[in-house]
Amino acid sequence: MKKFLSLVLALVMAMSLVTVSAGAKDFTDASDIEYDDAVAVMSAVGVVDGYTDGSFNPTATLTRGAAAKIICNMILGPTTAAALSADSAPYSDVPANHVFAGYISYCQQQGIISGYADGTFRPAGTLTGYAFMKMLLGALGYDADIEGYTGPNWSIAVAKRALNIGLDDGNDEFVGTKAVTREEACLYAFNALQADMVEYKDNSTISIGDIVISNKSTATVVNDKNSNKIWKDDDATQFAEKYFSKLDVDEDEHDDFGRPATVWSYDGDEIGTYAKEPVLTYTEDVKYTDVNDDVDDAGYEFNTDKDAKKVLTVYSNGSPKQVFSGEEVAELIKKTDKLGGKGVQVELFANSKDVIDTIVMVYTYAAEITSVVEDDKDTKRKDESALELTVYMDGADSNTDTTIDKDTEGFEAIYADAEEGDIVLVTPKGDKNDDDVEILTVALAETVEGEVTSVSADWVKIDGVKYELAAEYSGAKFNVKDEGTFYLCNGYVIHYVEDEAAEGQYLFVVRGGKDEDKFGKATYYAEAVFTDGTSETIVTKKVDGEEKEVGMGLYAFKYDEKKDTYTLTSVKGADLGKVDITKGKTSIKNAETAKSVATVNSKTVFVNIKLDDDEAFDDATVYTGYKKVSTMEKVQAYAVIDGTAEYVFTIDGEAKNDSDDLIYVAGESRSELISDKDLGDYYTYNAIVGGKIVEIMVDADMEDADELNGLYDSASINDDEVYTKLQAKDVDSVTESAVNFKKAADDVVTLEKTVDGKTVKVAALAYTNDVTVFVIDTDGDIATGSINRNYSNVDVTYVTNDDDEVTCFYIEKLA
């Protein structure tokens, strides 16, 4: 919803509570107010109030009586409106001494409201969006009888006019038949504040005997007749220009981040600065060429006039980073260079001519609360509450210390529950290398807790789920098998705090043994494998209640940290015997009878233990979920089953995998070297396998693992789905370099190139009816293409069948 239209006609609930005026930021529940600028403005001009407990209660429902008070405050001002009284009861259920009687009576006399057919008004009842907008239209000068706002179809007429003049602007989920909340009423009233007043210039009634002849004109906009011009660029009188002479607005300002903004003031005092809505927002790095395409698709454009100066300003956390001329912009949007970064919020703003003139980049950093400063009630200062922070602005080893207080946006929302050691997200003003760091905003971060299962230079897998590192990652170190809390910014990991390693509830004993001292006292040992695949030799205190040697099997355990001993309890029914485990199937079946012996799901953890020649632990592989586990036949299995298997341990399972016949590897997509606790060192590539676009893992020890590119027809894959061999033996393919791919005509695709200024045909190719086309860009990203499109300056590799018909085109774009 457009925040700049949010306003606070924060209606005074039909209540007996005493209310007090405040700006939106002063309310104790300010973080719950979506239309904060509206609340601030309408509160500043005295139209709405909060409660004595300091709250605003934005989602509470507005009552009909409170709505009448708002209308009176808008038209008469709060002082005059408060003095209204009723000489008699305006409605049967509104006695003259009713708290809202004066407001209701005034609105009735002005034709702004009407009651029900039974003579009641129901002041404590709710009202719909259309009903409140009907009142606002009356305040703007619309005549209910002339405009058809009475009778059975009144809401249709109200909706037509109200939505046409924008009373609902800012509420993208507006439903006019729903009861209005305090905050929504503020928004609609705020929009009315900026709407044009109307009048009827030729309304007359002539009576001839019993015949009444009415001459009704249509509503026309009131021309400016006063010197109070809030909006200077029109000849109309807006509601605020007529009724709020002390209100002022400047729509050509910028907020602290550089966003184009509107500044509202009242009686010379600033109410607040409210950013306008961006037309495009990114939270990851994006090519300038793609930005240009997105701008065009959204109906906007860049100014590329070569004679134009200073047409585009780029801000970085409020500091003007660059200013471009039209000629520079024209060159910029042709580049494949990238704007922003992972987790960096990039916002594009357009002027009134739909031209992008401002780009704002917001860089966010992780910060640790090092001290919570409480307010000293004995001092004369109103509030000394503060948070001392260490901001990780340039890596975990290069920190910046600073302090924030209630003047920092977001402070009030986190202060009450803040503790030392908490991690928050902050946005500093200006360059991160400035000596004095001013924090503009602070907020809590989304968190993910779990174990590091894979790491790379620019991403981490947490319990198997991949998260990319933010451009401004704190630099906190982590390794495979570490457990802790990861903090996210716009979905990217920005900081990490390590936890103590969590203990597993179950373990598998490979073998047991004991030692006796010279007095015959025995110490019992076990070679144990935990649910994370790690192995240790442990000392057992008791096994199933006895001090005895432990045998192979699955056990629940309790660990005594002080004595470093384990108490083991056998898991009943754990031995499943020889089973067949099939990748992608939720049933584990007996290898002989094919009957299901266990059900698994996406959370089931499989631990496949490899034993050496001495029947001792050698290695273990962990899979999470039935879609990840490798197919294993006639394998000895043990399971923890509680309805569905939670853990499944297998002994010496042999994974079954098939090689694909044809594989295309996009060399430019190669990742940085990845180290994984289970998979070892490997690279990832974008690839086409069996006609599908996928990402593959390639063992770093494989020959030319970091230089793969093109077609391969021979492959080997281990049980972790990592490619250990890729070879091109008998691929029937042809590659043409630096050609133009001409779309199909007469069932033929033509490849051409320019030689000495002349177009030369390189090949004319027939193709099968189900021919496939893949397009690989300069970054190695792969997309499906079409034979009905042209592709210029590309390398084309194609594969043919026995009839010399192309079955697949691989089109690689050149820089």
Task: Explain what this protein looks like in three dimensions.
The chain is mainly beta and 815 residues long. The strands form 11 sheets. Strands 23, 24, 25, 26, 27, 41, 42, 43, 44, 45, 46 and 47 form a 12-stranded mixed sheet that branches. Strands 33, 34, 35, 36, 37, 38, 39 and 40 form an 8-stranded mixed sheet that branches. A hairpin with a 5-residue loop joins strand 52 (791-800) and strand 53. The longest helix is centred in the N-terminal third of the chain and has 13 residues, at 64-76. It is globular and about 120 Å long. The relative contact order is 0.05.
Main sheet: strands, sense, barrel:
12 strands, mixed
Q: With helices defined by DSSP (H or I, 4 residues minimum), what is the helix count? A: 12
Given helix and strand content, the structural type is mainly beta
Mean pLDDT: 86
Q: What is the approximate shape?
A: globular
Radius of gyration: 36 Å
For this entry, give a set of tags.
8-stranded mixed β-sheet; single chain; globular; 12 helices; disordered N terminus; mainly beta; 12% helix; 815 residues; 12-stranded mixed β-sheet
Write a concise synopsis of the structure shown.
The protein has 815 residues and is mainly beta.
Strand and helix layout:
Blueprint: E1 19-20, H1 36-44, E2 50-51, H2 64-76, H3 78-82, H4 101-109, H5 129-139, H6 144-147, H7 154-164, H8 182-193, E3 198-199, E4 204-208, E5 211-215, E6 220-221, H9 239-243, E7 247-254, E8 260-266, E9 269-275, E10 280-282, E11 286-287, H10 288-297, E12 301-302, E13 312-316, E14 319-324, H11 326-332, E15 338-339, E16 345-350, E17 355-362, E18 365-373, E19 386-391, E20 400-405, H12 411-415, E21 423-428, E22 439-444, E23 446-455, E24 459-462, E25 465-468, E26 483-489, E27 492-498, E28 506-516, E29 522-530, E30 535-543, E31 553-560, E32 565-570, E33 575-581, E34 587-590, E35 596-599, E36 605-611, E37 617-624, E38 631-642, E39 644-651, E40 655-656, E41 663-666, E42 674-676, E43 680-689, E44 692-699, E45 710-712, E46 714-717, E47 722-727, E48 733-745, E49 748-755, E50 758-776, E51 782-784, E52 791-800, E53 806-813
Parallel strand pairs: 12-17, 13-17, 30-32, 36-39, 44-47, 50-53
Antiparallel strand pairs: 1-2, 3-6, 4-5, 7-8, 8-9, 10-16, 11-15, 13-14, 16-17, 18-19, 18-21, 19-20, 21-22, 23-24, 23-26, 23-42, 24-25, 26-27, 28-29, 28-31, 29-30, 31-32, 33-34, 33-38, 34-35, 36-37, 38-39, 38-40, 41-43, 41-45, 42-43, 43-44, 46-47, 48-49, 48-52, 49-50, 50-51, 52-53
Helix pairs in contact: 1-8, 2-4, 2-5, 5-7, 5-8
